[in-house]
Amino acid sequence: MESNIFEFIETSGSLLEKKYESLHKIEQELDKFFSATFFSKDHFIDVKTRVKAKDSLKEKILRNNLYLQYDTPENLLINLSDIIGVRIECRFMDDERKIYKEIYNLFRVKSENGYYQSFLNNNIFLNMDEKQPTKQKNGFEIYKIDGKYINENHSYCFELQIKSLVNVFWGDIDHKILYKNFNYNLTEKFIVDVMGSIKENLEMIDRELMLMYNQINEHNSNTSEDNVKNSVKVLLSKSLHDIYYKKLRLDLGFTVDFRSSCDAIVDYIFVNVYNVDENYMSEFLRLIERMKFLELKTINFGSELNFGKDIQFNDHFTKKIGKKIIEIVPRDFNWKLFLQILFDVEEGDPNAIFLSLLNYIKNKYNEVILVALANQEISEKLRGEIVDFIMNYLADSFEEDACISIITENTINAFYDSIIKSMGEVVDLWDLNEIKKTLTQNLNLYI
Fold first, then answer.
1. How far is 342 from 290, CA to CA, in rounded Å?
2. What is the DSSP letter of 52?
3. DSSP state of 185
4. Higher per-residue pLDDT: 137 or 242
5. Helix (H) and strand (E) counts in the chain
6. What share of the chain is helix, strand, coil (3-state, %, to 5)?
7. DSSP string covering 344-411
């Protein structure tokens, strides 16, 4: 009997491989259909599809004793409810219900097999008689609809799920920790209770994010694009600060004022990463998804930040600033906290992120200087010499006192005011030495 079981499992896996091309074509058609149906909806994000992998099929047959339910591998593949999986992703949990209602209104024609179909595709059928959302084995609810794809050549089942960003994240945790974990029996109630607590926290985050999103949308109708962008940045900065404020208090027992650091990080992200896309709401949601992960991440604020030994700085300014930051980070908590948050938010190579930050600082100050000099009637050559002098002066001063305030908006504005004041005090605008002398006096006060 045992050999027959494993023979059934192996044959089923081999048959799946043979059928994969046909299943993949059906998968693509389902993806195309649901994407086309919802792409214009504001609450819709994406459609994700998959054909069950061979190893996953074999594990499911064994785990659920499917070899007892089906007499042949052919019948198993035809009737397995999730041989193809389709997931419609939306923004918030309330949006799951909206999408389900839209599907319910679309699939209204009852067919002979008891399922329902729409006028848009005669091959796709859904079981709309089951109450939604359905309760899973773990006690939590999910919008999960059984479907069938039927044409003259094939008949296969598929499973359609509707999930918000929070529930996508929650589903990944639940699937990996509970659903496929066979070692938790002795502490099952404890783990289930903890998972329930995590689910409640995620639902709370979902509600807060939806309130934020709705507030921004209401604000959008009568405001300029710049105001919209600034509103998004303020909300993201506050969310980031709240996450790390709690973690600091939990890990160290105290906290510091790092609101301006969070403002600078969000500004950096918009300038260096997301400015390529004018759809700020889309980027807002992307960053929010990362914050949901950080909300659950355990962070050790006592750990060291690792920089590579051979960082290739781009120029004199970034080299001076960068080397000083690396030197001071082990004993300057404000810089360490800033970089730790930045590295957490911006996944990837820390060195690449660090170099990008240095370029951001350089470009920020370079832009401020050029704006301050814009109305001065001086030659381009003299303008370039003034810019070089101020940038070198800033780098040299930073080596003396590597204060994190260099990244804050208040400091950058004060820097701008100092240049404006200096140029207004210069008697001879063509005398570079006089300009340098006046700039030094005023920038000394600023620094």
1. 12
2. P
3. G
4. 242
5. 16, 8
6. 65, 10, 25
7. HHS-S-HHHHHHHHHHHHHHHHHHHHHHHHTT----HHHHHHHHHHHHHHHHHHHHH---GGGGSHHH
The confidence score (pLDDT) of residue 159 equals 96
* 91 neighbors 45 (Cβ within 8 angstroms): yes
Backbone angles phi, psi at 325, to 5 degrees: -65, -45
DSSP structure class, residue 80? -
Q: Are 439 and 389 in contact (CB under 8 A)?
A: yes
Closest-CA residue to 359 (of 385, 391, 336): 391
In one-letter notation, the amino acid at residue 433 is: N
Residue 2 pLDDT > 60: no
Task: Give the separation between CA 366 and CA 376, rounded to whole angstroms.
Answer: 16
pLDDT tens column, 49-99 = 999 999 999 988 988 888 889 989 999 999 999 999 999 999 888 899 999
Q: Check whether 279 has a pLDDT greater than 80.
A: no
> Mean pLDDT over all residues of the chain?
83
If you write DSSP's letter for every residue of 292-312 in order, what string do you get? HHHHH----TTSPPP--S---
Query: 3-state DSSP call for residue 148?
Result: strand
Residue-wise burial string across 348-377, b where 16 or more C-beta atoms lie within 10 A, e elsewhere: eebeebbbbbbbbbbebbeebbeebbeebe
- Return the half-sphere exposure (C-beta side, CA atoms, 13 A cut-off) of residue 59: 9
DSSP 3-state of 124 = strand
| Cα torsion through 360, 366, 367, 373, rounded to 10 | 170
Cite the beta strand spans of 127-223 per DSSP E: 134-135, 141-150, 155-164
Distance between CA 378 and CA 390 in Å, rounded?
16
pLDDT higher than threshold 60 for residue 278: no
* Residue 278 tokens, joined: 């004018």
Q: Give the count of alpha carbons within 13 A of 180, CB side only.
A: 9
